Amino acid sequence: MYEWVLAFHIIAVICWFAALFYLPRLFVYHAMSEDSLSIERFIVMERKLYRGIATPSMIATVALGAWLASMSLDYYLSQLWFQLKVLLIVVLIAYHFACAYHLKQLRDGTSIKSHIYFRFFNEIPVLFLIAIVILVVVKPFS
Questions:
Q1: Which one-letter DSSP state was computed for residue 30?
Q2: pLDDT attached to residue 58
């Protein structure tokens, strides 16, 4: 059973990160848009990506990860690498909700952030991905 849960957890992680990589990129283009047709198109794309892929993938990632951890809870809770991973996931979830905040502001036309801000904002998930993969694969601090 462990291998099946792990496989679906990895699939969910890939889908979540794909959405977290693409959504802020849409914010870049949205912030640069000046015509109403483009703005409306980005609003639809952002909403569908966030609600249809990012959020379900985040929920699946967390649920399947918790299921995996529950299979050897004593071991995982005693490992510093795992504790750091959980901390990074909590912050990544906050980033996910920050995307929702930006999505709503862009949708409502109240965002004061420039495309340059969103270009930097877009790079944040890469740092999380690198750190989490290193923690899981290398298991430093073990």
A1: H
A2: 98
9: tokens are 């957890």
Model pLDDT, residue 109: 96
Q: Which residues contact 18 (CB under 8 A, 6 or more apart)?
A: 53
Q: How many domains does the chain have?
A: 1
CA 88, 27, 16: angle at the middle one, nearest 5? 40
Helix, coil or strand: residue 71: coil
Residues 6 or more apart in contact with residue 30 via CB below 8 angstroms: 38, 39, 42, 43, 46, 106
Smallest CA-to-CA distance from 30 within 94, 98, 97, 113 is with 113
Q: What is the 3-state secondary structure (H, E, C) of 32-58?
A: HCCCHHHHHHHHHHHHHHHHHHHHHHH
Q: What is the C-alpha to C-alpha distance for residues 57 and 51, in angstroms, rounded to an integer? A: 10
Q: What are 93-125's pLDDT values in tens digits?
A: 999 999 999 999 999 999 999 999 999 999 999
Among 45, 23, 38, 32, smallest CA distance to 101 is for: 23
The per-residue pLDDT for 21 is 97
- What distance in Å separates the CA atoms of residue 88 and residue 59, rounded to the nearest whole number? 16
**Domain residue limits at 74:** 2-138
Q: Residues 80, 138: contact at Cβ < 8 Å? A: no
